[in-house]
Amino acid sequence: MSKNKILREALNSGSLFTAMAAHNPLAAKLAEQAGFGGIWGSGFELSASYAVPDANILSMGTHLDMMRAIASVVSVPLIADIDTGFGNAINVSYIIPQYEAAGASAIVMEDKTFPKDTSLRADGRQELVRIEEFQGKVEAAINARSDTDFVVIARVEALIAGQGQEEAIRRGLAYADAGADAILIHSKQKTPDEILSFIAAWPGKTPLVLVPTAYPQLTEADIAALGKVGIVIYGNHAIRAAAGAMRKIFEQIRRDGGIANADKEIPAVAEIIGLQGDAYMRDLEARFLR
Ligand code: SPV
Ligand code: MG
What we know:
By secondary structure, the protein is an alpha/beta fold.
């Protein structure tokens, strides 16, 4: 089954699909090995890996290249975070085929103005585009895909922008009307109350997508029990884990004045060589190097 079909069928099945963030192919491979259903091609993570803000500082090409690299090493679906679509509905029309060709199985596009500011930052600039304008962008995305199993997810930022539940529901329904396959509803409240209230009030048939970074108390079992959520995305745990692990080991090596103790704490070089796909290269060597 194609990766697109795997994601499409998961969305149709009513069970909860899990996606872990990745900022490079190695992180994506580790997420696949850990058993996540798919990979989240996070703009936040990629920006952080370049040590720049998640605010359209990186170009679309940089993100697209990373999506292609990730998709080429995993066999699970990749959900690409295209921020606001890098422009208007015309830009969206041109970039969707590129993301599809790069091997993504879905895109998430948010209803903020370009350039965006990251959602979870305190006091971020959170300006939304008009509902009609974003409906046009959703329709453009659907029109531009060549595989109908390629999933188009519309992301509502009304709660992030402090515009309240009524506006969030209005926008979600409008984007579902425009044909979105799923609605990502984002919240930065430190408890699940805001998101639970939205889900209870959601009158649509279109499945919801959650990114519970700010309200980690909500488990997958809790989310599945709600019945209306098709996908849970873990938005930034790869880059945070990597940053924490690197900082710890770097500090230890400075403290010890050498690497002997640090070596016991980190994967062996052979393990990394394995993750690089060494077995495949050895096979090629045996068959073709004469
Ligand atoms: C990302 O991971 O880039 C996201 C999720 O869009 S968040 O950072 O929470 O906005
Ligand atoms: Mg993002």
